[in-house]
Amino acid sequence: MKSTVWLSLCLSALLIIFSTTGSLFLVDSSTYVHAQSPQPNSNEQVTAPLDTADSIYSANITKDLGSKNISSSPYRITEERAVDQGFLKGVGNVTNNQTYLSTHLSDKLIQSTGNGTLETPDGQSIAWITSSIGRPVDGSWVFYEIILFNNTQSKPLSLLNSSIGLVKSTVGNEPDYIWLLK
To answer: Is the four-CA dihedral 20, 24, 27, 32 of positive or negative sign?
Structure first.
């Protein structure tokens, strides 16, 4: 359990760095030459481009399985459960069963830890854990997550063994995506 908490804290730190700098690496941007690139002013939001064509997983159907309040002090904490129907490259259709414990830090910021499984139609599965930061964007909650896959004996899902990925999920009718880090 301690290793899970430590991993969650580390993953949360990476998410905060990624969401505030637009990069997972703390490198002084002045060390790079930006030929003909407009530089954002200090008031512009910097976002890292994530091409959906490069994602290994996409889900277009999400079913909310319920939410319950866990605590209200000092922050509201909720548990959410959902299931996605998605497509995993190299495998095909999969079901993503998810449970999240969310701390509502403000009306505009939620920190969550989660766990779940990706399952093939024939019952093969791989477990995962995640840490995420979410905020409202254009009227919908958008979450950026770091996901860590466990190991499985399942041949089709073994491509995910011990992999770390980035997740972008949007509450509502928008697709969710996973990109594996190399």
So the answer is: negative
